[in-house]
């Protein structure tokens, strides 16, 4: 029950972090600090004749352990940008992914594409914190938020000028995301409870998503064939972590993937 473990650890972490800075303290800082340059995550994902790629900075994961032993978050993000990534996802969760809030701030200050904060958001405090760290967008996981919270979190993020990628893995979670008014839906091909990956999850759930939504296929994309498969389903964007982290030249891999998707779109329109 890994998702439950991650959330339980997050509750404890938040109890400690909130002792250092209150929600009001964060609101004060947001009002008084100079704003960073913002980039629209949503605009970056809209199809411009090809699939958009969200490239993920991911040192480790619960399913794979350490993915990148020689890890440099900033250099990885710069390589992603150089390869044409449309947005960069930064895992900030510490215990299970070896992420860091500092990676997000550092990357935000050095790249000129939208930055997504990838964490397990369960509290309003984290939404304000994401904004302070420099996020252009945040991940909201439907499986760990009830409908009311999901809607409330989307509204707060919007108020703070951030987009939400609302992640779903089944029909029930998709209904909740749509009810919450999500405009960017992430279909996670990985079951977060048993780690199994099935790319046909995207194919199945795509059918229930209205055409005005932006769809991101997440997890398990390994090669150009997977990219072509996703492009054939009509998704707008791909979220890719492990494959890029393991690549000797992630920039080239992004270029190859974009070419693979572009070729298919030219062929089928
Ligand atoms: O990646 C995991 O093992 C994992 C386990 C439990 C909860 C979340 C998990 N991953 C988060 C993600 O959604 C992925 O990092 C992201 O979609 C990229 O996936 P991949 O390309 O397969 O690295």
UniProtKB/TrEMBL annotation:
Kindly state which reaction or reactions the protein catalyses.
1-(2-carboxyphenylamino)-1-deoxy-D-ribulose 5-phosphate + H(+) = (1S,2R)-1-C-(indol-3-yl)glycerol 3-phosphate + CO2 + H2O
Q: Which PROSITE patterns match?
A: IGPS
Query: Indole-3-glycerol phosphate synthase domain location, by residue?
Result: 5-256
4Fe-4S is among the record's keywords: no
Cross-referenced InterPro entries, in alphabetical order? Aldolase_TIM, Indole-3-glycerol_P_synth, Indole-3-glycerol_P_synth_dom, Indole-3-GlycerolPSynthase_CS, RibuloseP-bd_barrel
**Short name of one Pfam family for this protein?**
IGPS
Enzyme class (EC, first level): lyase
Which keywords are on file for this protein?
A: Amino-acid biosynthesis, Aromatic amino acid biosynthesis, Decarboxylase, Lyase, Tryptophan biosynthesis
- The UniProt record lists the EC number as 4.1.1.48
Pathway annotation: Amino-acid biosynthesis; L-tryptophan biosynthesis; L-tryptophan from chorismate: step 4/5
GO biological process: what's one of them? L-tryptophan biosynthetic process
**What GO MF terms are annotated?**
indole-3-glycerol-phosphate synthase activity; phosphoribosylanthranilate isomerase activity
Cross-referenced CDD domains? IGPS
Q: Which family does it belong to?
A: Belongs to the TrpC family.
Spell out the protein name for this chain. Answer: Indole-3-glycerol phosphate synthase
Annotated gene: trpC
């Amino acid at each position: 029950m890994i998702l439950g473990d991650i959330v339980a650890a997050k509750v404890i972490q938040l109890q400690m972090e909130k002792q250092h800075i209150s929600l009001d303290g964060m609101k004060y800082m947001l009002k008084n600090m100079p704003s960073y340059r913002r980039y629209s995550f949503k605009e970056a994902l809209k199809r411009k004749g090809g699939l958009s790629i969200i490239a993920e900075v991911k040192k480790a994961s619960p399913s794979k352990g350490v993915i990148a032993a020689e890890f440099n978050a900033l250099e990885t993000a710069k390589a992603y940008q150089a390869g044409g990534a449309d947005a960069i996802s930064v895992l900030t969760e510490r215990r299970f992914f070896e992420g860091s809030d500092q990676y997000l701030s550092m990357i935000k200050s050095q790249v000129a594409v939208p930055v997504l904060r990838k964490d397990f958001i369960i509290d309003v405090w984290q939404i304000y914190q994401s904004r302070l760290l420099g996020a252009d967008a945040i991940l909201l996981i439907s499986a760990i938020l009830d409908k009311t919270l999901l809607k409330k979190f989307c509204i707060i993020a919007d108020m703070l000028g951030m987009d939400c990628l609302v992640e779903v893995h089944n029909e029930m979670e998709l209904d909740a995301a749509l009810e919450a008014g999500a405009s960017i839906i992430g279909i996670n091909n990985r079951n977060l409870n048993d780690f199994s990956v099935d790319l046909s999850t995207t194919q199945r759930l795509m059918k229930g998503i209205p055409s005005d939504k932006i769809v991101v296929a997440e997890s398990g994309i390994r090669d150009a064939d997977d990219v072509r498969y996703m492009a054939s389903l009509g998704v707008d964007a791909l979220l890719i972590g492990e494959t890029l982290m393991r690549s000797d030249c992630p920039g080239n891999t992004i270029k190859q993937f974009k070419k693979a998707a572009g070729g298919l779109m030219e062929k089928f329109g």
